[in-house]
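I have been asked to look over a protein record a colleague put together. Alongside the sequence sits a line of tokens, each denoting a local backbone shape. Please read both lines and tell me whether the tokens look consistent with the sequence. I do not need a full report, just your reasoning and any doubts. I have pasted the whole thing underneath without changing anything.
>
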Amino acid sequence: MDSRTRILNAAVRVFAEKGLHGARMDDIGAKAGINKAMVYYYYSDKENLFQSVLNMIIGQIYADIIQGMADVDVHKGDPVHILEQFVRLHFTAFSRNKEWSRLFLDVLSNRPESLRKAFLYAFETENVREQKLVFQAFERGIREGIFRDIDFMQLFISIIGMNIIYFLARPIAEFILDVNIRDEQAFLKEREESIVDLLLRGVLK
């Protein structure tokens, strides 16, 4: 693993634990096993490193989704399967790392512009096109009488919201519902199935 990657991986852990303002370059360098001067050499300052971390995370999420949809045929494939596949890939990509979830919570609350920059970076560097694929499949599903004629933009926002809200709302849900989630993986699988079920019941005719 090269020095840049080691620094980014260490920075994810430190930023997730301490936030942007609480994190120090010394801590990140120590966790990466790299001299602080090298951290500054590669990333110049903490703001630049933080944005690079977000770029890496969003880029990896979309790379996983794109890879998972590489064989999608929007002209012949089953529109229901394509939509379900996208939802599952999206959920898995966002749920694979708890530290990413903690970072998202902080960024959504305090630095939404940084997240916007990370998405724009991913669109430019990862050739993100899965939204267009899913849109085309959904439009075909409407024409074929499979889906209700609803606004895809609103549907897409709902997919994103349902897929990440658990990671933001879990502490509140545990308190209000008095639930103690002992098996995280089993619960996440139940959550994924619930999202797919609710979504398809909402869009299928």
Notes: The radius of gyration is 19 Å. Residues 107 and 115 are 7 Å apart (CA to CA). The chain has ten helices and no strands. The longest helix spans residues 152-177.
